[in-house]
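Please, structure for the following, as C-alpha cells.
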Amino acid sequence: MSWLGLRHKRTERLYSDEWNLVVDGLDILYGYVGALKSDLEKLDEKVEAYYLDCKDEIANVSTNVEQYYLEIKSELGDIETIVNQLKSDVAGIKTDVRQYYLEIKDELKTISVAPNVEKYYLEIKDELGTIDAKLDQLKSDVDGMAGDIHEIYLMKIPRLLASVINQSVSEGADVFSPDVEVDRNGRVRFKLWLSVIGYVATKWIPAGTVEEIVGYLNARNPIPEASWHEFDFTVMKNDKINVRIYPGMTVTVFVYGLGEA
C-alpha cells in the first residue's frame, strides 16, 4: 500500500476517488521537485557569489604585492647605485695611496741627506703599510652593508607562513598542525574567513619556552560570518603560533610574516 493509501490492483474497475489520489500524489511530487530545483538554484547563486568574492580578493592581494614591489624596487635601485659608487671610490683611493707610496719610496731612495730624512721615510712607510689593511676593512664593511640592505628588502615583502582553505575545525582545536614557527622578528598577520559568527583566539608559545598562552583576537568580540578580517600580532624569531575557533565551523585562514614590528 502506498503512502496515500493506494494499493496494487488487478484488472478491475478504477474508481474516481482512487484516481483522484493518483492525481494528488503527482501534484505533491511536482511540488517537491519544484522546491528542490529552487533550492539548487539558490545554492548555485551562493557558490557563484563566494567564488567571485574570493577571486576579487586574490586579485587585489596580487595587485598590492606587485605595486609594493615596484615602489621598493626603485628605492633599492638608488641604494645599490650608491653602494656600487662607494665600492668604486674605495678601490680608487686604494690605488692612489699605493701609487703615492711607490712614488715617495723611489724619491726618498735618491735623497742622501742626513739621518732625519731616512727616519721620516721609515715613519711614513709604517703608516702607509696600515692603510692597505684599513681599506680592506672598509671594503668588507661596504660588502656587509650591501647584504644588510638586501635583507631589509626581503623584510618588506610579506611571506606566506601557513594557510588552510574551507577546512572544518572543532571548537577550540588548533587550526594548524604542527604549530607555525616564525622565521624572523617582526609581526604576523592573520587573514580570516568564518562560515558562521564566532570568536577567534591565538595560541602563542614564546621562543625557548613550552608555555602556551592563549588570547582572543578582536578584543574578544564576535567576528561576523562570510567576511574577511585581518589581525596583526608581534612576534620574535622561533616563536610558535596557532589559531583556535569558537564554535566549531568551516574556516579559511592565511598567516603571513611581515618581518617588521
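The mean pLDDT is 80. Strands lie at 159-169, 180-181, 186-194, 199-205, 213-216, 228-235, 240-246, 249-257.
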